Structure of ABC transporter permease:
Amino acid sequence: MTTKRLVLRGINWFMPAATIGLMVHFSVVTKSFLTGGNLLAVLTQNGPTFIVAVVAAVLLMAGYVDLSVGSTLALAGSAQG
């Protein structure tokens, strides 16, 4: 394998490994990090962002480079207060 492929393969696994590492670290340091209530609060608070991210990902995968989705999210956030 070439060096470029090895670097790209490492980049593909870096973010999931870093996320899992941070979750393990914070669950050891803080007792209330990986509780059901905290996970539910995180999912509830990030629901609208998740929906917009899924829609934007589908648009980008379909080949439509549409930046108006992000603009609409910013406008909705600023209008909400």
In short: Helices lie at 3-29, 36-45, 47-61, 68-80. Residues 1-33 form one domain. The chain has two domains: 1-33, 46-81. Residues 3-29 form the longest helix (27 residues).
